[in-house]
Design brief:
- It comes from Sphingobium phenoxybenzoativorans.
- This is VOC family protein.
- The chain has three helices and eight strands.
- It has 203 residues and is an alpha/beta fold.
- Among the domains are: 64 residues, 2,3-Dihydroxybiphenyl 1,2-Dioxygenase, domain 1 (Roll), CATH 3.10.180; 78 residues, Roll (2,3-Dihydroxybiphenyl 1,2-Dioxygenase, domain 1).
- A four-stranded mixed beta sheet has the order 1-4-3-2, covered by helices on one side. A four-stranded mixed beta sheet has the order 5-8-7-6, with no helix packed on it.
- The N and C termini lie far apart (42 Å).
- The chain binds fe (ii) ion.
- Fe (ii) ion binds next to strand 8.
Length: 203
């Protein structure tokens, strides 16, 4: 991907990573997954594959999402998903377990979010309000996310696929700068008492 995201000049000098080749998720019903990703989202099915002798271990299908692909496994013996653990439990999103894929964000033009929201809703998909992610904390409550602030860096809508997999349409709204990498990364040791400590900082 040669689209520029930052003005910092930082580049990967270790590996020539060209973007995502594919992300592999797990479906409970491959036909329903095809109906959603190809039928509703319009992503062409580009590869179907059955795993193991006579496909005994399941299926692996790939959809074209532009410069990369989105893949699904269907395993006849897959464990059930657990909302709030393996996938989000709400439309705007939620905590999920360590190691899970919390959500997938498909890149779109932010200016087209109103049109895309209407198109998804016409197809019967429940869609979140358009959310403008700003650097200012939403101190006024979740509704503040619906306000565009000058620090806005990405705008989004959220919805879920038939298995509850959280999907986002996201459009970057500006280039990043050094000011965008000011947060100190938390460690496992920071977890205990984190919320109370953060409340104390802003109190
Ligand atoms: Fe996101």
């Amino acid at each position: 991907m040669d689209r520029q995201l930052t003005t910092t000049g930082k580049v990967n000098r270790k590996f020539e990573i060209r973007g995502i080749n594919h992300i592999a998720l797990v479906s409970s019903d491959m036909q329903r997954t095809v109906d959603f990703y190809e039928g509703v989202l319009g992503m062409p099915l580009i590869k179907t594959y059955e795993i193991g002798p006579n496909g005994r271990f399941g299926q692996h299908f790939f959809f074209d999402m532009g410069s990369s692909s989105l893949a699904f496994f269907w395993f006849p013996d897959a464990p059930a998903s657990v909302p709030g653990v393996t996938s989000v439990s709400s439309l705007i999103g939620s905590v999920t377990a360590i190691g899970t894929m919390n959500h997938i964000a498909l890149d779109v033009d932010a200016d087209r979010l109103p049109e895309y929201k209407a198109r998804l809703e016409a197809a019967g998909v429940e869609v979140s309000p358009i959310v403008h992610h700003n650097d200012v904390a939403p101190a006024l409550g979740p509704d503040a996310l619906e306000d565009v602030h000058e620090s806005n860096w990405v705008s989004s809508i959220y919805f879920r696929d038939p298995d509850g997999i959280h999907v986002e349409f996201a459009g970057w709204t500006r280039l990043f700068t050094e000011a965008d990498i000011a947060c100190k990364a938390a460690t496992a040791a920071d977890a205990e008492g984190w919320s109370a400590k953060r409340d104390a900082i802003t109190a």
